[in-house]
């Protein structure tokens, strides 16, 4: 059940009506939301609803035990919990890849073919809810968060707006909201509706059109395309993945807000970043801050000297790459980001005294192209295909065999979005909330009609569903 | 120091649905929200009935869907006969013209695939 479909629209209208009709009964409201979330998740694969529930029960039990334990036993319990969560993630996500690599290593010794071929079905959203559970256990252990009730924790991990592709909403944000009856105000509703509409446009029009007409053909057979096609194709993917993933986040934030819950911002015009460090403060913020708080800082962060800082940055991004999936191209993507972050940090510390800092536009241009280079590895089916893409990109053939006025215009639009004023959405929301509901409803209906007329037949799943 | 974990990420990076407060915020917000959503839904039910029909056609037959199939088909036919599908058709036609435009002899792919 994808957000920009009528099936989901109908599902959401029913959930909206039921949850708000339950009035001030917060417990029943949460139970209704939990059942709705399980129904939503079961629409992909009903078997994994049990996984979600069992995971929540185990984490709830561990957190309750951690709260009652003295420090050493608490540490052992949190270690056990983190290991169990990583075990679930590891099995579903990496077991097949790991066996493949072992088989490749053993092949020369004549043992490779004896290993079983493991085809594990990946539960949608497993990377998101296991990270959510890990941060919950760590926060409870560090006494930053009180242990939640079973209902609250299960709903935290299952809540359908963020369940399958984030944002990774932490317990510190959502659990306090679950403890009180949600309220709503016109400003929030106006902003939520605008976010949903904007997300719908980015996904159904920009991302879908670019995927089908430009990016997929460019990456499918780069050898048959010109350097110009592949250059615009790479820019096109940068716009596509931004419009796809930020659209999901926008819609998730908007949908949760219509149910009375606030999610944190997950994107902040990432391609206007003037450094890679700045980029990661703007792109998938919930993941980058998770990696910072639960990986980079526990590794020592920047507290253990220059060399450890560079190593920690590199390792954090390498593991961030692996989080996206078990393949060498994600490892290369992570290594590229980690390596460049380390270089940036080194340069900021060792820039010769007389040298002026680079102008901001140069920083934005450089950062954007490093990110685009990374996206080629991220998008390609494998590292071999990514290197083939890069080889053809620099072949020097500047004919156009692929790029249409519309796809070029959408690439330009997707980049121009980043030049919009940061506070444009709240500014529009403050105007919208003052109008009568029928007027706003009509404007919303007309806008959705226009977006729907432009979208292709059938909407592809969001890119981040596979992670 | 993990500001995210200590205070919550909303405190650290904000949320796009938090807008500056105004007295109008508290004027029957639930009724306003529901009225807005209901108006948009009704509008789309009339002017985008084609999409409802196309979606329904793709649903697998079941005891829930089958009794609704004929009424929905009638509704789509009625809105088409009354010309309510004209705005959508006009936008679609312009969009398809934009999709068909070329600089030269380039051959783009087809709509609607991913990764």
Summarize the structure.
Chain A is mainly alpha-helical and 467 residues long. Chain A has helices at 6-21, 26-45, 47-68, 71-106, 126-141, 150-158, 160-163, 171-178, 186-220, 227-258, 276-280, 285-296, 306-324, 328-350, 360-379, 383-393, 405-416, 424-432, 437-454.
Shape field of chain B: extended
What would you call the structural class of chain B? mainly alpha
Assembly classification: heterodimer
> Greatest interface and its residue counts?
A-B, 93 and 68 residues
Summarize the biggest pleated sheet of chain B.
Answer: none
Secondary-structure element series of chain B: HHHHHH
Global mean pLDDT of chain A: 91
- Main sheet properties of chain A: none
Detail the poorly predicted runs of chain B: 111-115
In one word, what is the shape of chain A?
A: globular
- Radius of gyration of chain A, whole Å: 23 Å
Radius of gyration of chain B: 23 Å
User: Helix proportion of residues of chain A, in percent?
Assistant: over 70%
| Residue share in β-strands of chain B | under 5%
SSE class of chain A: mainly alpha
Distance between the termini of chain B: 36 Å
Instruction: List the helices and strands of chain A in order.
Output: HHHHHHHHHHHHHHHHHHH
Written account of the structure:
The complex is a heterodimer of chains A (467) and B (115). Chain A is an all-alpha fold and 467 residues long. Chain A folds into two domains: 6-182, no CATH class; 187-458, no CATH class. Helix content of chain A is 70%, strand content 0%. Chain A has 19 helices and no strands. Chain A has helices spanning 6-21, 26-45, 47-68, 71-106, 126-141, 150-158, 160-163, 171-178, 186-220, 227-258, 276-280, 285-296, 306-324, 328-350, 360-379, 383-393, 405-416, 424-432, 437-454. In chain A, helix 9 runs parallel beside helix 19 (437-454). The mean pLDDT of chain A is 91. By secondary structure, chain B is mainly alpha-helical. Chain B has a domain at 47-101. Chain B has helices spanning 3-7, 9-13, 29-47, 49-58, 66-81, 86-100. The relative contact order of chain B is 0.07. The chains are: A mainly alpha (467), B mainly alpha (115).
């Amino acid at each position: 059940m994808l957000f920009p479909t009528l099936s989901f629209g109908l599902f959401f209208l029913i959930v909206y009506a039921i949850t708000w009709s339950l009035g001030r009964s917060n417990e029943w409201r949460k139970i209704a939301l939990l059942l709705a979330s399980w129904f939503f998740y079961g629409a992909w694969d009903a078997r994994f609803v049990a996984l979600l529930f069992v995971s929540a029960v185990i984490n709830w039990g561990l957190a309750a035990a951690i709260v009652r334990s003295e420090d050493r036993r608490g540490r052992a319990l949190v270690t056990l919990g983190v290991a169990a969560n990583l075990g679930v993630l590891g099995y579903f996500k990496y077991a097949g890849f790991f066996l493949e690599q072992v088989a490749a290593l053993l092949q020369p010794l004549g043992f490779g073919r004896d290993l079983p071929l493991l085809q594990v079905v990946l539960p949608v959203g497993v990377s998101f809810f296991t990270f959510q559970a890990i941060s919950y256990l760590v926060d409870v252990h560090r006494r930053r968060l009180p242990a939640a009730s079973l209902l609250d924790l299960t709903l935290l991990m299952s809540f359908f707006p963020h369940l399958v592709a984030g944002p990774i909403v932490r317990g510190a944000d959502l659990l306090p909201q679950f403890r009180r009856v949600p309220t709503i105000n016109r400003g929030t509703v106006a902003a939520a509706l605008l976010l949903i509409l904007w997300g719908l446009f980015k996904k159904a029009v920009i991302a879908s059109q670019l995927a089908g007409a430009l990016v997929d053909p460019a990456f499918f057979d780069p050898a048959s395309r010109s350097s110009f096609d592949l250059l615009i194709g790479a820019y096109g993917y940068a716009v596509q993945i931004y419009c796809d993933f930020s659209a999901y986040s926008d819609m998730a934030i908007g949908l949760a807000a219509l149910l009375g819950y606030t999610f944190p911002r997950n994107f902040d015009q990432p391609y206007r970043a003037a450094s890679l460090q700045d980029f990661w403060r703007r792109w998938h913020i919930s993941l980058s801050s998770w990696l910072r708080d639960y990986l980079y800082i526990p590794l020592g962060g920047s507290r253990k000297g220059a060399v450890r800082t560079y190593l920690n940055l590199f390792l954090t991004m390498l593991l961030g790459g692996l989080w996206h999936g078990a393949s060498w191209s994600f490892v290369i993507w992570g290594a590229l980001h980690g390596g460049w972050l380390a270089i940036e940090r080194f340069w900021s510390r060792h820039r010769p005294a007389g040298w002026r800092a680079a102008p901001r536009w140069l920083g934005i241009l450089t950062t954007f192209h490093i990110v685009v280079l990374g996206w080629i590895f991220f998008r390609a089916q494998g590292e071999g295909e990514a290197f083939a893409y890069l080889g053809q990109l620099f072949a020097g053939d500047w004919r156009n065999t692929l790029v249409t006025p519309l796809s070029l215009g959408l690439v330009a639009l997707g980049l121009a979005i980043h030049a919009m004023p940061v506070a444009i959405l709240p500014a529009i929301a403050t105007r919208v909330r003052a109008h009568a509901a029928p007027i706003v409803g009509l404007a919303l209906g007309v806008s959705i009609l226009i977006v729907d007329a432009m979208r292709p037949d059938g909407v592809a799943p969001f890119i981040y569903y596979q992670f | 120091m993990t500001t995210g974990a200590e205070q919550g990420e909303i405190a650290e990076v904000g949320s796009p649905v938090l807008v500056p407060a105004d007295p109008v915020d508290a004027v029957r917000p639930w009724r306003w929200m529901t009225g807005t959503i209901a108006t948009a839904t009704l509008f789309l039910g009339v002017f985008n009935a084609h999409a409802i029909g196309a979606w329904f056609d793709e649903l697998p037959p079941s005891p829930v869907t089958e009794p609704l199939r004929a009424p929905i088909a009638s509704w789509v036919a009625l809105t088409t006969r009354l010309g309510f599908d004209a705005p959508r058709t006009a936008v679609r036609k312009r969009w398809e013209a934009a999709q068909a435009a070329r600089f030269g002899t380039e051959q783009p792919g087809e709509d609607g695939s991913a990764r």
